[in-house]
């Protein structure tokens, strides 16, 4: 890349910074904190401590700054795609969340984590089990991922970048991702 290109890119980044806030929800043990680590550093650990309350982490990808709210799932949310019993709870928690007026119209990214495990649901089974086809009032996207083997983390990051808004926008840019 020429010097002029670099200079133009730098100038662009000053004026077109984008930012977004993302809430990660899901039942306990789904892999939300693992996903944050995977997006931020590409690292993975088997030894995770359950999140009590929440963590906030800012991650910058190119021009986009993503504020990730990692909400502890204990007695609240999250399911992993390999945990077949908890998908019913996940479904009802998800649909309950979608009735909240403050989240109306917010794009939804559903992530089926732990596809490295043999018992993980297929994408179609997860879509069916969570009743995703009945959600018609917003954009819904579903990816199957593995934080452990870094599968599809890149397309998650692409989705996040695509759904960020310019920092000058008046509405608070917020996206909700549900790890299932
Ligand atoms: N096999 C496999 N295990 C994973 C994967 N992602 C996370 N885990 C494991 O799942 C367990 C829970 O991961 P966490 O990231 O702590 O889950 P969490 O959703 O943040 O849990 P809470 O904070 O309690 O809500 C840990 O032992 C992780 O190592 C994955 O892609 N594959
Ligand atoms: Mg956690």
From TrEMBL:
SUPFAM superfamilies: P-loop containing nucleoside triphosphate hydrolases. One of its GO terms (biological process) is protein transport. The keyword Amino-acid biosynthesis does not apply. Mg(2+) binds at residues 33, 51. Keywords: GTP-binding, Magnesium, Metal-binding, Nucleotide-binding. The keyword Chloroplast does not apply. InterPro entries: Arl8a/8b, P-loop_NTPase, Small_GTPase_ARF/SAR. PROSITE patterns: ARF. One of its GO terms (molecular function) is GTPase activity. Coiled coil: none annotated. It comes from the Eukaryota. Signal peptide: none annotated. Belongs to the small GTPase superfamily. Arf family. This is Uncharacterized protein. The lineage of its organism: Eukaryota, Viridiplantae, Streptophyta, Embryophyta, Tracheophyta.
